[in-house]
Amino acid sequence: MEGIPLFLKYDVSIQGYERFWEGLKAGEVWTTKCKKCGTIYYPPQRDCPNCLSSDMEWIKLKENGKIMTFSIVKQKPQGFDQEDYVVGIVRNEDNVDLMCWLKGIPKVGKDVKLTTDGKRVIGVVV
Amino acid sequence: MNKRVAVIGIGSSKFGRRNDVGIRELTWEAVREALIDAGLTQKDIQLNVIGSTAYRGTEIYPAPPASEYSGLVGKSPIRVEAACATGSAAAFTAINAVASGMADIVLAIGFDKMTEVDTSASLAIGGRGGNYLWEFHMYGTTFPTYYALYATRHMAVYGTTEEDMALASVKAHKYASLNEKAHLRNKVTVEEVLKSRPISWPIKLLDSSPISDGSSAAIFASEDAVRKLHAEPVWVKGIGYGSDTSSIASRGEWTGLKAAKDAAAMAYSSSHVSPTDVEYATVHDCFTIAEIMAYEDLGFAEKGKGAKLLRDGQTEKDGKVAVNLFGGLKAKGHPLGATGLAMIYEVVKQLREEAGPVQHSFKNYIGLTHNVGGTGHYAYVTVLGR
Ligand SMILES: [Zn+2]
């Protein structure tokens, strides 16, 4: 028999991360760096577990990177009922590894330019 | 470990799409078998540790109903979770309860009923098996996607091919066809694997473990209890554990699982066993690439040479180190919470020489379980011996 469906609606806090989400809208990728010990966090963090400081600054990540790996998502999960997309990991010039969607023909080692589509980081194959 | 710990009873349900049972009846299948195997009753159990991820079932707090149905009320104060390594987390907790001297006889149960929800919901839950906001929310990652990121990198760096990965699937299905408790008992060919539907390229349907229902259980006992019960023990010789970042991008390397390497190093040093001593292993082959990486992470093969071990047939029955002769996660099935204890079930069956058509021939009776949670978020390696 059919069970009672469970609908879960989420209210997700992004307090302290506004710079990241605003950056996405402007085609930029921002993250945090600890002012005390210099550690760069991506995904950004408000707190530095390395030196226990919470004195962080926002930095804009450089846009050139290289594809480390990727996968073409054919069978989509709930919430992504759309065309196939390519999930990649890109290492940028700041030596930060970021997840992104890749546009163009992906290959490990190829250069990409990082941008956004307003909602996520996009790596455009050069 | 302070005190020696033995496995004195094991049980496992049939894995598969089990529409014929609820979570309670499913759990009982493993508990009943384990109690009979050990010659014990529920009265003898001093502590029951339950492992279940539970999110894909109607019972999202499944421990009390499962415990009640199995006659274990009053013995079950804890449910543990470590994604796909949940069963090993339950075993780990139970073993430590015995090793510390807190209890002499401890039951660990692992189960999940994953087929109550549909595949798209299941993919959305698995896709959260990392870091929701920074991965799934923005990028629609699925669980296969995470392992596919490892597969693509392994292919690019070490020349591993889709054909190599397909061999792991062929092996798994071949052995599952001999296991009446396995989920998928059909044999497959390399061509069939290569032609199967891509799920998250390069991972295809036949590179992937199925979505399964199942339960497994093991009873752990102290040396005193083994003596009093005149039990035929299999000893826990050592355990190792490891963990890694939630965000897969943050790991810096995608050709092996650091958590598994750390767990293996700890398990080998605590048991005084080296990789070449291991005669039988269950490895966490949730996807075919995972089996190849496991060979490397466990030291059975040099880094980048995992596929060669498979191609050379060294992980078949009576090979150098036999791997997953019950069909692996790939074909036996992978009900998350059950898997780690199903691995212990399998290795104990093998070490006792009760494995029937898939019995491996041992010289020194050393076996190992390798159970990974999430996409390398958690790992447990347990060395067992007679
Ligand atoms: Zn700092």
From TrEMBL, chain A:
InterPro entries: ChsH2_C (IPR002878), ChsH2_Znr (IPR022002), NA-bd_OB-fold (IPR012340), Thioester_dehydratase-like (IPR052513). It comes from the Archaea. The keyword Cell membrane does not apply. Residues 21-57 form the ChsH2 rubredoxin-like zinc ribbon domain. One of its GO terms (molecular function) is DNA binding. Keywords: DNA-binding. It holds the Pfam family zf-ChsH2. Residues 58-116 form the ChsH2 C-terminal OB-fold domain. PANTHER family: BLR3430 PROTEIN, DNA-BINDING PROTEIN. This is DNA-binding protein.
From TrEMBL, chain B:
This is Acetyl-CoA acetyltransferase. Its EC number is 2.3.1.9. CDD domains: SCP-x_thiolase. The keyword GTP-binding does not apply. Pfam families: Thiolase_C_1 (PF22691), Thiolase_N (PF00108). Residues 240-386 form the Thiolase C-terminal domain. Keywords: Acyltransferase, Isoprene biosynthesis, Transferase. The lineage of its organism: Archaea, Thermoproteota, Thermoprotei, Sulfolobales, Sulfolobaceae. It comes from Candidatus Acidianus copahuensis. GO terms for molecular function: acetyl-CoA C-acetyltransferase activity. Residues 10-224 form the Thiolase N-terminal domain. GO terms for biological process: isoprenoid biosynthetic process. The keyword Transferase applies.
